[in-house]
């Protein structure tokens, strides 16, 4: 059952640590079946309740999963082995379009913004007990949200979009609750949900966002929360259209107890309008990160939502990090008010590369998707074969397994490092690797 690995320990914490150590070292492979609780209790000479407590801890940490009489197994993707840790090795001389990073040439210099923040700090140093959100940042963020039709609500600041999503989920859900998540979708969210002890319910997407019937199935299956990428969906580039948003809002209106999280991480690099789902249920949140438009190391996202959700998020944040550095908040205020980023120009630059690649692929008979953001998604029949052939042709792309639960295979191409001259060359290589006609045109 476990091969040569022996689980040890007398207390629940020791047993759980022993299993985690086996998973972390690779001695317990994904999918490995753990001994029944009574059997392991007998081997260790402990009460079965002790083993049950250890297994419960492991489930809550996202290490194992239990399926009734089929027993407990190491998860296919335990939280100790996140999807982002599984990367394609890029040999020297191969173009790397795997990382999903923005174009550094389109990011503003932070010198002036950080210097301005330092001057503000020198004039009035931040001390304990101050408001965790700089009032000017809250005012600017709220005005931007109002312009995009986001319902009114308090403002919080988190250390990036994923931090905000985690805090909102933790504010309402408990281990064992189910979360409806896009499939294919952001690998970090697909890892985060089980790491919180929650269950993933995959929701199929198309170019207009989550498919209504898929969301309806997830809600019928008991989803307590729905996480939706409003624009620049990773990896497919989907955008929640106004029509799709209206359908989803009508559906969610019949489920007022569901927590809805809008992830608008593409704000600042996308010129398509926002169609939020926020506000239709009792508890909701919308998150906007500065990472794509201003730089991944600027660890700041703006979060708004209903009063109860924001009160819980800010209260729990006070007991942990306390607040996101006001120096960073001052820097963001400076970036926003100085016009350091021409959002329209940035969005246009990414759109030209993305749309150009999608068009070039389709001219070669390769279906591709990418309405917004930094990525193009190409459905394929065999991810490993396509990735391998593209490496041989001089291109490193990301296998879709990082982003999938039940959806069909694909590969992700990040366009931010491409030039206009690259597009036909890459399209030729992808067409040769995919072998047109072997892959389906749908990704959900």
Describe this structure in words.
With 444 residues, this protein is of the alpha/beta class. It is 39% helix and 15% strand. The chain contains 15 helices and 15 strands. The strands form four sheets. It has an eight-stranded mixed beta sheet, with helices on both faces. α6 crosses α11 (307-318). The chain is globular. The relative contact order is 0.13.
List keywords for this structure.
3-stranded antiparallel β-sheet, 15 helices, 39% helix, 15 strands, alpha/beta
Instruction: Order the strands across the largest sheet as they lie in space.
Output: 4-11-10-9-8-5-6-7
- Shape verdict: globular
Q: What is the CA-atom radius of gyration, in angstroms?
A: 23 Å
Give the uncertain stretches in residue-range form.
436-444
| Strand percent estimate | 5-15%
Biggest sheet: strands, sense, closure? 8 strands, mixed
Integer average pLDDT: 92
């Amino acid at each position: 059952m476990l091969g040569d690995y022996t689980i040890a320990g007398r207390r629940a914490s020791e047993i759980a640590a022993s299993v985690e150590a086996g998973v972390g070292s690779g001695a317990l492979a994904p999918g490995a079946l753990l001994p029944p609780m009574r059997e392991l209790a007998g081997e260790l000479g402990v009460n079965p309740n002790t083993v049950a407590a250890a297994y419960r801890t492991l489930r809550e940490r996202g290490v194992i999963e239990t399926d009734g009489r089929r027993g407990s197994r190491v998860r296919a993707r335990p939280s100790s082995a996140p999807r982002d840790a599984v990367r394609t090795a890029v040999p020297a001389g191969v173009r790397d379009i795997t990382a999903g990073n923005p174009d550094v040439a389109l990011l503003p210099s932070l010198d002036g913004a950080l210097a301005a923040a330092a001057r503000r700090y020198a004039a009035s140093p931040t001390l304990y007990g101050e408001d965790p959100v700089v009032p000017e940042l809250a005012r600017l963020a709220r005005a931007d949200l109002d312009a995009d039709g986001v319902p009114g609500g308090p403002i919080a600041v988190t250390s990036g979009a994923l931090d905000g999503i985690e805090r909102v989920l933790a504010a309402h859900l408990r281990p064992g609750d189910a979360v409806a998540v896009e499939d294919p979708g952001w690998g970090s969210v697909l890892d985060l949900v089980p790491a919180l002890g929650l269950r993933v319910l995959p929701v199929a997407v198309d170019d207009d966002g989550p498919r209504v019937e898929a969301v309806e199935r997830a809600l019928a299956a008991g989803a307590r929360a729905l996480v939706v990428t409003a624009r620049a969906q990773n990896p497919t580039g989907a955008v929640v259209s106004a029509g799709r948003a209206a359908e989803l809002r009508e559906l969610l209106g019949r489920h007022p107890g569901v927590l809805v999280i809008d992830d608008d991480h593409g704000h600042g690099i996308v010129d398509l309008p926002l169609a939020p789902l926020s506000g239709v249920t009792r508890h909701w949140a919308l998150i906007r990160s500065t990472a794509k438009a201003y730089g991944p190391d600027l660890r700041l996202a703006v979060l708004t939502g209903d009063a109860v959700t924001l009160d819980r998020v800010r209260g729990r944040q006070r007991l942990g990090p306390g607040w996101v550095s006001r120096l960073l908040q001052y820097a963001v205020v400076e970036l926003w008010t100085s016009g350091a980023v021409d959002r329209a120009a940035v969005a246009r630059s990414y759109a030209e590369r993305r749309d150009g690649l999608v068009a070039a692929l389709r001219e070669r008979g390769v279906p591709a998707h990418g309405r917004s953001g930094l990525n193009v998604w190409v459905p394929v029949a065999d991810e490993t074969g396509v990735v391998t052939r593209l490496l041989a042709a001089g291109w490193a792309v990301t296998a879709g397994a990082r982003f999938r639960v039940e959806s069909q295979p694909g590969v992700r191409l990040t366009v931010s490092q491409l030039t206009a001259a690259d597009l036909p060359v890459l399209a030729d290589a992808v067409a040769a690797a995919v072998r047109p006609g072997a892959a389906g045109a749908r990704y959900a």
